[in-house]
Amino acid sequence: MIPAAAIALLLRLALGALLIAAGLLKLRDPTAFAAEIANYQLLPGGAALLAATLPSVEVVVGASLIALPRAWRRGAACAALALFVMFTGAVASAYFRRINIDCGCFGTGGGPIGALTLLRNLALLAAAATVLRLDRAPAGERPAPAVSG
Questions:
Q1: Is residue 144 assigned to a domain?
Q2: Spatial separation of the C-alpha atoms in residues 127 and 117, rounded to whole Å
Q3: pTM for this prediction
Q4: Residue 6, Cβ neighbours under 10 Å: how many?
Q5: What's the sign of the alpha-carbon dihedral 81, 88, 66, 64?
Q6: Which of 4, 88, 141, 143 is placed for a possible disulfide with 121 were both Cys, Cβ 3.0 to 4.6 Å?
Q7: Residue 66 pLDDT > 90, yes or no?
Q8: pLDDT for res 111
Q9: Residue 148 has pLDDT above 80, yes or no
Q10: Would residue 145 count as lying in a domain?
Q11: What's residue 103's pLDDT?
Q12: What is the 3-state secondary structure (H, E, C) of the chain?
C-alpha cells in the first residue's frame, strides 16, 4: 500500500507543475486569453482583469504547492482547490448551456469544451481536495488545540 505522504507528494508535484505550465502558457498572450474568458459569457467586463491576474495566481499557487513548507502548502492547496472549483464551475456552465467554445485552460489553442473537459476538471478538483486532506503534519507535530474556559 502506498503511504498517504507519497500520494500527497505526487499529487502536489503534478498539480503544481500543471498550474505553473497553464499559467505560463496564458501569460504568453493575455489578450487572446481575455477573449477566451469572455467567450464563457460569465463576467461581462471582467475578462481583461482576470486575464491579467489569473495566470500569475496559477504560477504562484503551483510553485507554492511544490516548494513551500507544509504549513504554507496547506494554504496553497486551499487556493488550488478554489481555482479548480472556479474552473470546473465555468466549464460546467458553458457545457450545460451548450456554448461551443475552446477551454482556454492552457491559453489559446486548446480544444473545445466537452464531457471530457468537465471530467478532467472534476479529477483535478478531487486531486486538490486529496492533497488538502493528506498533506498534514503527523499527529505528534500538530499544535494542541486551544482550550478556552
A1: no
A2: 15
A3: 0.86
A4: 11
A5: negative
A6: 88
A7: yes
A8: 81
A9: no
A10: no
A11: 87
A12: CCCHHHHHHHHHHHHHHHHHHHHHHHHCCHHHHHHHHHHCCCCCCCHHHHHHHHHHHHHHHHHHHHHCCHHHHHHHHHHHHHHHHHHHHHHHHHHHCCCCCECCECECCCCECCHHHHHHHHHHHHHHHHHHHHCCCCHHHCCCCCCCC
What is the pLDDT, as a whole number, of residue 44?
Answer: 77
Q: Are 8 and 121 in contact (CB under 8 A)?
A: no
Q: CA 128, CA 79: separation in Å to the nearest integer? A: 9
What pLDDT was estimated at residue 106? 85
What count of residues does the chain have?
A: 149
Tell me if 126 is assigned to some domain: yes
Region 110-138 average pLDDT: 89
Grid cell 504547492 in the structure block, residue: 65
Domain span at residue 121 reads 4-133
pLDDT at residue 20, as a whole number: 97
Mean pLDDT of the 120-141 span = 85
At 42 the pLDDT is 93
Residue 74 lies in a domain: yes
- Structural domain tally of the chain? 1
